[in-house]
Amino acid sequence: MPRRKSSRTSVTEPVSPVLSSLHGRLQAWIAQSFGKLTEAQELTLPHILAGQSALLSSPTGSGKTLAGFLGVLDHLVRSHEAGRLSDGIHAVYVSPLRALTYDIQKNLMAPLEGMGLTEVIRVGLRTGDTSAAERAKLKRKPPHILLTTPESLAILLPQASWAPWLEQVRFVIVDELHALAENKRGAHLTLSLERMENRRVGQDGRLVRIGLSATAAPLPLLAELLVGKGHSCEIVEARLEKNRRVEVMSPLRRDPYPPAGYTAQRVMQDIAQIVERNRSVIIFCNTRSATESITHRLKNALPKLSEKIEAHHASLDRDVRLEVEDRLKQGELRAVVCSTSLEMGIDIGSVDCVVMISTPKGISRALQRIGRSGHSIHASSHGILVATNVNDLMECVVCAEMTRAVKLDPVRVLEKPLDVLAQHLVGMAMEGGYTREKVCTTVGAAYPFRDLTEEELDRVLNYLEGGGRSLEGQYRENFGKIRWIGDQLAIPSRRVEREYLANIGTIHTEGMVTVLLGKRRLGSVEESFMKGLKVGDIFVLAGRTVRLVETGVAEARVEDAVGRLPTVPAWNANKMPLSSGLAREVASLRTDLAERLGRDADEEIWDWLVERYEISSSNAQAIVKHCHNQLRVSRIPTQDSLLIERFVDDREGREADLVQFFFHTLIGRSANDALSRIIAQRVKEAVGGNAMVTIDDYGFLLALKSFQDLGLEDWKLLFSPQDAEACMQTALQQSELVKWNFRGVAQTGLMISRNRPGQERKIKQLRWSTEILFRVLSEHEPDHPMLTQAYREATHTFLDLPRAMAYLERAALLDWHLVDVPVVSPFSFGIYASKIREGMMLEDPEEAIERLWREYEKKVGLG
Question: Where in the numbering of this chain does the Helicase C-terminal domain appear (predicted)?
Answer without folding.
Answer: 266-429
